[in-house]
Design goal:
Length: 118
């Protein structure tokens, strides 16, 4: 059934967001200053994906949002471990921001359709 898969995606996403935020918070102050948009972008992606799921939209946009959270999380962990760079985090952040915009557009389209159907 589709129900466990949906619950699984939700759980994965919350874990990814919390884990990425913890990695960000563990960075030196200078790195956090250079990537200060991370918490906002993480929150936006997580909230957008949650809204998609609430609408039963568990397709490509949700998959992209979860993948972007994971990519950003890994870039943050690499930076924290000394194996990555602020540039890698910035690239992951730009991609996450773009995917967040796609998710927002998708949600807006869904809202417009719902309004027309009322």
């Amino acid at each position: 059934s589709a129900r466990p898969a949906t619950a699984s995606v939700e759980r994965t996403e919350l874990v990814l967001e919390r884990s990425a935020l913890a990695a960000y918070n563990a960075l030196p102050a200078a790195s956090r200053r250079q990537t200060s948009d991370v918490p906002r972008v993480l929150g936006r992606l997580e909230a957008g994906a949650e809204a998609l799921r609430a609408k039963g939209d568990t397709g490509e946009r949700l998959t992209e949002a979860v993948a972007a959270l994971e990519h950003l999380r890994l870039a943050l962990f690499k930076l924290q471990a000394g194996d990555g760079s602020v540039g890698e985090v910035t690239l992951a952040l730009e991609r996450a921001r773009a995917i967040g915009e796609h998710v927002d557009l998708r949600l807006e389209a869904v809202r417009e359709v719902e309004t027309l159907l009322e």
